[in-house]
Amino acid sequence: EKTGKVLGEFCQCYREQYGVALFNSVRYEIEGNGGPQAQLLHRKVPLEDQVIYSGNLFQYIEENKKWRNRFCVVPHNYGLVLYENKLAYERDLLPRVMINSAGYKILTSVDQYLELVNNSLPGVTPKSGHSPILKCPTDFPLILWHPYARHYYFCVMTGKEQEKWRAVFQDCVRHCNNGISEDSKVEAPAFTDAVRMYRQSKEQYGTWDMLCGNETQVLSNLVMEELLPELRSTIGPRLKGKAQERQRTWIQISDAVYRMVYEQTKAQYDAAMAKCEEERPQMESTIRTDMDQIITSKEHLASKIRAFVLPKAEICVRNHVQPYISSILEALMTPTSQGFAEVREVFFKEVTDMNMNVVNEGGMEKLVEYMEKLSHLAFHPVKMQSCYEKMDQLKLEGLQQRFDVSSTSVFKQRAQIHMRQQMDDAVYTFETLLHQELGKLQGKDDLCKSIQRILERVLKKYDYDSSTVRKKFFREALLQITIPFLLKKLAPTCKGELAKFQELIFEDFASFILVENTYEEVVLQSVMKDIMQAVKEAAVQRKHNLYRDSMVMHNSDPNLHLLGEGTPIDWGEEYSGQPEPEPAAERRRRAKQVVSVIQDEEGGLPYEALLRPREPQEPEPGAPPSSPDRVEEIREALEKESLGDGREEEEEERLMNGTDARRESASPKPRARVPSEAEVPHATPVSPTAGAETPSPSVGTPCHQPSDKETGEEVALAGGTCSPLQPRGTTESGEGVQTEF
Q1: Of 260, 343, 518, 581, whose CB neighbour count within 10 A is largest?
Q2: Which residues are registered as beta bridge partners of 566?
């Protein structure tokens, strides 16, 4: 009932905003009003058929309250895909669970997690001395927390592993949060404006932390924001048992409700989308035919609203906004500029190191090897972490309360996405220019000089583009902070009077001109001049390394953008010296991983070593290796292994990712089986990659390739076949379990 009510109101907003967005898109197409031309090239397909990262970690299974070893693969679309073990991944068995991390927070402390859990159900706090809701067998937990969906608990063996996995998980969250495609020039702005208008109709202004994920996830968050407090007040007092059990039950209830909301939301939103798409051709025809009349009508409406609103808005800006613009801008600029400077430094260092290594180690073969690594630099979570960390310094402090900014995470993640994009643009431009030069070079000296010359050329382009990107980011962030504040301030005196302006819009154009949108444009104009001036003055300060607006680079490389339109460069294939092209399956098998696997320099234990049972037992045919069941067992195993003999011999036979080669070769071949419902954790929606592959040279079979359209959790059937889609829960027998969410 709640979902139907919220979606009914939202879909009305969406239909209204769809017409406005379509008009703006067509008008932009006809008139054109682009900003400065980018100097760097933009890669069309940033990462394809690559694995960001893979490795072992422990996962806590809530259904049977046991820790199990899992092999986690992060494909190019940043979904987390968990397998029973590495062998299951190599043998193309279906994964245990797939996780879409949109909306999640990465916690590295059990205390942090317990604090959030205690706050989620007020009045239910375990007494001191009682067992907490979660015990971790090591000192290095990694917890994925979500305000509505289920939580995921992992742990690793060393602090180094924890840091690396944390960087990987944060990159997954950052990517999945940015789930609304910016390539869509109509649907995306219509959706985000509809969400904003809906929340403003409920007197909710300011930034919203849960505007993350794809459209269905965002709408599910919108419903849960209203539904969860009602559920908590109704169900919370009726929960029975100890405090820990009540907390655990509440998390499960919230997750179950979130899944139900997601299914209903997806159906209703898809229906609204289909209806708008059906009406689009007729609407677009009307816009193109009557463009001039629509523009004239809108300008007439804007002039009337401006006369009514602008005097009040200017007073509000002068008294409540203008004095704080420079403070907000300075708070934004310092960490952002440091982050982009770090991107430049990391790029410079990687290329310089590559140049030295190529000269010292020899020729083209080494160049190909290093260029394959460099081409994925922007998608290396660990190497990019030093850039991303600069944004952690962003604090608006007193300004945050004044302007009703719930959190700075929105601005941090946006800046970090810009950093990654600029790094990839710089890398792609560099490899394109170098690829063009290779045919003309004679010997190592020429190669070294050419790399240095191209690097300097790309850095100049990076400085210009990063300046443009940052100035745009600052303007957008200032508007995002100040406009909701102004709208809230002006609402009591202005919003009630807007209805009288509706009669100024011709009925034929009512789908493309909205009074509410025009009113917001007038309010934006009232503060835009001050924001533009503040950013312009900031560009003069050398410490931020910004170009002035008067500095414009026009066609400095007229032929460069033509190079970017060619086929992507495959360094390994083009310069490998193979007479015949590799088959697609072999190429997938050899696909390299962006982040190198963890090699524990501190002499940590292999994960598979912890899977040995306490007493020797004959394994059942087809059964996977057993796992320690309790915290105490894992700790005992750790103590025994750390004191065990033959350590040096084991080190030689250990695989790079920390698995034991002898145990893998001796273990029986696992067969695909149907796990019980208790063994299979549910998951949030994800679109795992196709063709993701481990970098191990011993892998001879392609990995499982889940469809990008699949969501939720997949479980292997006997024979390794995939179950049909069942969006409504699970079957009694557990066969064909497919939870779509």
Answers
A1: 343
A2: none
**Model pTM score:** 0.78
Helix axis angle, 515-540 to 291-316, nearest 10° = 60
Structure tokens at 677: 């419902």
The rounded distance, in Å, linking the Cα atoms of 594 and 572 is 14
Residue 98: phi and psi, rounded to 5, are -125, 135
Please name the helix (run of DSSP H) or strand (run of DSSP E) that holds residue 70, with its range, or none: strand 66-75
Query: Assign residue 65 a region: left if phi > 0, alpha if psi is -120 to 50, beta otherwise?
Result: left
CA dist 476 and 471 (Å) reads 9
Check if the beta carbon of residue 334 is closer than 8 Å to that of residue 341.
Answer: no
Contacts of 190 (CB under 8 A, 6+ apart): 14, 17, 18, 20, 21, 22, 276
Q: At what angle do helices 187-201 and 2-31 cross, to 10 degrees?
A: 130
Distance, C-alpha 288 to centroid of its chain: 37
Count of C-beta atoms within a 10 Å radius of residue 574: 12
CA angle, 123 then 125 then 130, to 5°: 155
Angle between helices 443-494 and 409-437 (to 10 degrees): 150
* pLDDT reading at 243 higher than 70: yes
Residue 682 sits at φ, ψ, to 5 deg, of -80, 170
Q: What is d(CA 455, CA 450) in angstroms, rounded to the nearest whole number?
A: 8
Q: Which helix (H) or strand (E) holds 107?
A: strand 105-107
pLDDT at 710: 35
Per the listing, tokens 């924890």 go with 162
Q: What's the order of all strands across the beta sheet hosting 80-83?
A: 97-99, 80-83, 66-75, 51-61, 152-155, 141-145, 105-107
User: Can you tell me the mean pLDDT for 537-547?
Assistant: 76
What pLDDT is stored for residue 601 in this prediction?
A: 38
Angle between helical axes of 243-289 and 215-235 (0-180°, round to 10)? 140
Mean pLDDT of 342-349: 97
**CB-facing half-sphere around the CA of 257: CA atoms within 13 A:** 23
Q: What is the DSSP letter of 345?
A: H
- Residue for token pair 């481990």: 694
Residues facing residue 83 across a β-bridge:
71
pLDDT of residue 630: 54
Per-residue H/E/C for 466-530: HHHHHHHHHHHHHHHHHHHHHHHHHHHHHHHHHHHHHHHCCHHHCCCCCHHHHHHHHHHHHHHHH
| Residue-averaged pLDDT of the chain | 79
Q: What is the pLDDT of residue 519?
A: 96
Query: Tell me: the pLDDT tens digits for 437-490?
Result: 887 766 677 888 899 999 999 999 999 999 999 999 999 999 999 999 999 999
Q: How many angstroms separate the CA atoms of 90 and 93, rounded?
A: 8
**What three-state secondary structure class fits 136?**
coil
**Window from 270-279, 366-375, 438-447, 719-728 with minimum mean pLDDT:** 719-728
Helix (H, G, I), strand (E, B) or coil at 83: strand
Query: Is 712 in contact with 94 (CB distance < 8 Å)?
Result: no
Sequence letter at residue 467: S
Residues 691 and 702: beta-carbon distance below 8 Å: yes
Length in residues, the chain: 741
Q: Are 628 and 634 in contact (CB under 8 A)?
A: yes
Model pLDDT for residues 282-307, shown as the tens digit of each residue: 999 999 999 999 999 999 999 999 99
